[in-house]
Amino acid sequence: MRLSQMLFVTLREDPAEAEIPSHKLLLRAGYMRRIASGVYAYLPLLWRVLNKVSAIVREEMNATGAQECLLPQLQPADLWRDSGRWDTYTKAEGIMFAFIDRREQEVALGPTHEEVITAIARDMIRSYRQLPTHLYQIQTKFRDEIRPRFGLMRGREFIMKDGYSFHADEDSLKATYRDMYQAYSNMLRRCGLEFRAVEADSGAIGGSGSTEFMVLAEAGEDEVLYTDDGKYAANVEKAVSLPPDAVPATFEKYEKLDTPNTPTIESLAKFLDCSPTQIVKNVLYQVTYDNEQAVLVLVSIRGDQDVNEVKLQNELARQAAAYGGSTVISLEVPSETEQKNWAAKPLPLGYIAPDLDDDYIKPQASVAPKFLRLADQTVVELKNFVTGSNQSGYHVVGANWGDQFTLPQSVVDLRKAAAGDRAVHAPSQTLQTARGIEIGHIFQLGTKYSTAMGATYASESGEEKPLFMGCYGVGVSRLAQAAVEQSYDQDGIIWPTAIAPYHTIVVMPNINDADQVVAGEKLYADLNAAGVETLLDDRKERAGVKFKDADLIGIPYRIVTGRSLKDGKVEVVKRATHESQEIGVDHVVKTIQQWIEADREY
Ligand code: ATP
Ligand code: MG
Questions:
Q1: 220: which of 195, 394, 437, 535 fits an S-S bond (Cβ 3.0–4.6 Å)?
Q2: Per-10-residue mean pLDDT, the chain, length 602
Q3: 439 CA to middle of ligand 1, Å?
Q4: Other C-beta atoms within 10 Å of 258: how many?
């Protein structure tokens, strides 16, 4: 491709809308344009990158025996009602673009395809002989994200590879899950990314396992905790660890103390001159279930620890049936306005005890009349602890479960694991932290969708059984940007060769110099003929502009038809290192081919 013929516009300044390096660089280098919040036009250079990523994804998927297909983006509401997700996706999370068509039918733009594929499986899979089977597609997805940001990282329209497998039993599902683990690792390695596979939260679906593939980068929205022995890595949402040991109690007698201005653990520990590990902290949450039932939740946890709200939400989802609900619609620390809606009297915030009286809740149908009391494991063994007194400005010390307070019936792991904690599998290992960009997520769904939607098969013994199902997603457009986030310098993008839009760029510094043009044109033709994807910068621009642009767009190898032409040589520059060397014109094609081959990851 000739740059002179391309719609190629680079920007010298960072666009104001962009916050992270990869987003700035892709805009500046003319790879994409923002059309609306979270909606981008993929311009020709980016489209080449996306196609290369897709090609690698396809090869790895096909190698596992999965079949490519293309499912409709327009999805009828009925399918989502069958699975029970219509309300969650349109109202609760509100992530689905839904509308009414001219026939007054409700439809939505697909954010994901479990419903569509399960409907197909319900119709087409009859017998165990058809199993296992795995379909995937590469397609634009639509999600009305609350906070679209960072360009392609969190778009409202983005490209995803999504695959769905169906099985007769769990063992078969696990086998495919293992194949996907390998395929995903291969994809990311071949794209030139540094990544980590981590244990992930499977959310309210419960189920067996889920793994996220995280590209490591400072700008990542996720936190990963891992150990140096390589035996443990998990998303912080899911991570477990051993808490630090509690400092033995210093209060022997139970008494209520005047502790003015100590609403926080820090201020209280300082005032009482005790360790936060001796304090039972009681945190108030408000959960709303899908039947619009609100429940006030009181979580007792050790003072030095924080509540992991994902673990809390999972526990609340498990308890949903007790409140007539099935899923959690929202979970939050109730704001002052919300407190006014249900509190019968002002709450002793900052001084709450585990036995806060239920009469703080105003009787009304939409709010459960009693607190749901949960204890994190860290408080169970505490003796002579410090906690609130339900009276502002006062705490109690020397308290014990079974004496002054009743330990809540539900004792669960609700604490947030943190860097520096000891690992469960080997207490000598401490958890380390890293930021990650979630690129892929593989999931053992089990029979959730097949049961909800009646997708069954006849087993060998003739019994109708629900299909076991797995799902596997890769953010193709997010991956492309993550590659930039992992690889750039002050001059611009440094694409891994495998997904660079072109392998080389031939720069003719002065197109008024006939020798340069002849040499440049010949190299351009020879390289392309040899399968080296080549750009030719034949624009009427100053040499400095051309070099800057070549660096900015990040093509791995630059060939300059400059001064050394008179000796039959050209300058060849490696983008990643700026390393430059002069090579005889006749040897350029071979050399570049060798370099490309050496860059390839298998
Ligand atoms: P996230 O937690 O980042 O919102 P998710 O759990 O919603 O992701 P999945 O539904 O598992 O993601 O989708 C599969 C993959 O699609 C993700 O791993 C990610 O790479 C990509 N993806 C998800 N949402 C977006 C988005 N809004 N923009 C770009 N890529 C996305
Ligand atoms: Mg999401």
A1: 437
A2: 95 91 98 97 98 98 98 97 90 89 97 97 98 98 96 98 98 96 98 95 68 95 94 94 93 95 96 97 96 96 97 94 91 93 94 97 96 97 97 97 96 96 95 97 94 96 97 98 98 98 97 96 98 97 96 98 95 97 97 96 85
A3: 7
A4: 11
Q: Which ligand is nearest to the CA of 163?
A: 1
pLDDT at 208: 64
- Domain range 255-412, its CATH number among 3.30.420.40, 3.90.960.10, 3.40.50.620, 3.40.50.80: 3.90.960.10
Domain chopping of the chain, boundaries: 13-70+111-240+433-484, 255-412, 502-599
**Which residues, other chains included, contact 273 with Cβ-Cβ below 8 Å and sequence gap of 6+?**
none
Among 50, 112, 149, 160, the mutation site with the greatest number of ligand 1 atoms within 8 A of its Cβ is: 160
Q: Whose CA is nearest to atom 14 of ligand 1?
A: 473
| Closest atom, ligand 1, to C-alpha of 443 | 11
pLDDT at 95: 93
Q: Taking Cα atoms as reference points, which of 445, 439, 467 lies closest to residue 113?
A: 445
Question: What's the CATH fold of domain 13-70+111-240+433-484?
Answer: BirA Bifunctional Protein; domain 2 (3.30.930)
Which alpha helices (H) appear in 471-542, and where do they start and end?
476-486, 514-529
Give pLDDT, residue 207: 56
In SS3 terms, 345-379 reads as CCCCCCCCCCCCCHHHECCECCECCCCEEEEEHHH
Cβ–Cβ < 8 Å for 333, 284: yes
- Look at ligand 1, atom 26, and give the residue with the nearest C-alpha: 154
- The top-level CATH class assigned to 502-599 is alpha beta
In short, whether 151's Cβ falls inside 6 Å of ligand 1 is: no
